Amino acid sequence: MEFACGFVYVPPALSQKIGQKSNVNKRSALLPPVNRIRPCRPPPPPPTNSAQAKSPKPLRPHPKVIEQLEKSKEVKKAVKSTVFYENAEFHNKTEASITPPRSITPPHTTPPRRTALLPPHMKLSSTNQTPPYSQPFNPSSTNSQEFTYDLPKNEPDLNASLWDPNYSYITPEGTGGEVKLPSDTNNGQSAKALVPPLPPRPSFMKSMPLYLVLLPTPQSSSSSPQKTDSPLIPSPTSKDKGPLSGNPNVLLVSLGKLLSEERGQTMQGEPTSCSQCGSVLDSGHENLVKECYFCRAWEPQSPVTGHRDGLFSLCPDETPLGDDDSLLLFCIDISGSMSITAEMSDGENVVHRSRLQFVQEAVLQCVQRLSQQQPDIRVGLITFNYQVTMHGNEIFTSHSLSGPELIESNFLKEAAASFPTPPPLSQTRDYLQKQVMGLSEGGTTALGPAALLSIAIASRQPGSKVIICTDGKANTDLGNLEVEDLDAHTLLSSTIFYQELGLYAANQGVTVSVLSIEGTDCRLDELGRLADRTGGTVVIASPNKLHSEFENIIENRTIATHCTVTLLLPQSLRMRGEREARHKVIREVGNVDPDTEITLQFGASEQDTEVLAPASGSRVSIQLQIRYRQRRGRMMLRVITADRDVTDDSAAALSSLSLAIIQLNSSQASAALAVRGRFLDARREGELQRKLIERAIEHNSSAEDHQIYQEWVKTMEPIYNNIHNFTRRKSVDSDSQSLTDAGAALLYAMKHSNRKSISLKNKQKL
């Protein structure tokens, strides 16, 4: 597997949430403790007369205070002779009288201007709660409490400067008394006019920080701005530093390459897997793993250990099938519309040939080439008009079904099971060519029953192919596509029929391709579901190019069937563009050919607030599991685990971006939305990835990438601007719009495109 980006990119906004989440319980050192009531009244002063001589002696500062002050590097000592009281003993002395606190008048000194700080925190050393401070002070209260200072680190020396003698500290807080402001010799009356009164402080708090009043100065005016190196002011963000508009987290899985690689060692049996998510970690244990790296919620941890790249044979005792004897069935339309002629040049002459004649010539050329290159291949012929005919050979005769026999699906499957398997082409070539040359057109188009019979016959051998060639809409009861304007119920049942038929073919390992003739209307948006589900091709060809299109379909050999791709991410990441945006996705691929490539998108969740995105600089593990059946019938499992670094640096992501993978993903994802009728979502998806590609080209300054991008934009033009040119008018059963044949063929081709096909299209346009 290949990653479009060298990192797992997480937008800066999501990576910053990690720090915010981790600091959610932290409080600033300047804020008071939680659930603490600040006292409104100071404790009483010490006794001064002889009547109070028997009152308790003042205690020395609490050891906790001394320990905290000694640990501080810059604070020498916050309290020199602070007096503490044991309130319980003091308040039991009911005869003690309270005298007003003495005014403290330190020597007159002008204090220097200092940075504003909040008062030191006070914590109650006793677990008992004090009475509410809003009530009058009750001396008889028996609650005992002590206050200790909780000083922040790096606190400046609070006793380095003396107090202002003009400031009064004797007025209790909240009494509404007059407050005297400190004198300011510099600003005078302007400071008093601009600055509100400072709150008074309790008298028992002697060491208090001074407040600094920050006033505008001539140097800070707008006329003469002053430069500052403050880190709090963010610098303008450059374009390469901002968040990316698209999603660079794209994974490319080249299934054709991975499944065809020759490996030396294959482990036998089912590997040990997690019982919750199914991740494969180690094959050395017999029991299932109950919890693994991918199941746990994200946390800084080492990446997953186990298989980096392992191949398992899931059923080692299973007997493999014999040599490749897959089937190739031509399902040809011989209805009345196939008699329409078209002009073509034959040397200097212009001749008219019917559509059926063009088809006959193309099939004969394919049979001739296959008889030379693959004589053991088994080729069959099924034709349909008002009836469906399974053509035989010298060994068994042909068999036709018509009327009520073409209505019931189960009857058609039973009829297909009773029809013999065609012998190798080396034995039937001459008879098959005679059958093709003897075809004649006429009647209606029983395409639905013919497709079901062909798939049922081909299902005997996984890896078989069915090529349906038609020039019109199916118009018999089963799978009728000609009644969209008259009967919505019939159209809905036909849509369900082709969806279920495509699922049936994929489960049987059959690849179905649909080839229509240019200038016709076959409702490929519905009929193409067969090809879309089975990994086949939807093609519109001109009559004189039918042979080359047949050859391309035949040469695209199936190398594996029943393929299922599983991607496992850690809980901190989520899938994008899938039906379920979880950390695990299972995609049914079905049949795989050598050029099959799929892309997957993932990234950090932007809506899940409970799961944190991975932090920038961390490392995550991603596991890919590919379960498939080989052509000889053996079930295999390949497990690949990769580790990726996480970053929120947009420039680093752009520098390591693979534009080819991003372009392929944009084509596949947009086309997948458009074929389901979600045209606005398809356009939005294409626009986001186009902006990402443009930004990467600008960042890397690559002229070659710019040229490739310009050609790719032309391929995406229908989705960007002209999707209305490929849609019909609204359907009768809903407000959604269906696709024209040209639109369906284009979008189905884009959905199953690969890097090779995109490169060929770009070269053809050049």
Automatic annotation (TrEMBL):
GO biological process, any: COPII-coated vesicle cargo loading
Region: Disordered, residue numbers: 29-61, 94-147, 217-246
Biased composition (Polar residues): 124-147
Gene3D superfamilies named in the record: von Willebrand factor, type A domain
Top-level division of the source organism's lineage: Eukaryota
Protein name as catalogued: VWFA domain-containing protein
Biased composition regions of type Low complexity, renumbered to the chain: 96-121, 217-232
Single GO MF descriptor: SNARE binding
GO cellular component: COPII vesicle coat; endoplasmic reticulum exit site
Domain VWFA: 327-553
InterPro entries listed in its UniProt record: SEC23_SEC24_subfamily (IPR050550), VWF_A (IPR002035), vWFA_dom_sf (IPR036465)
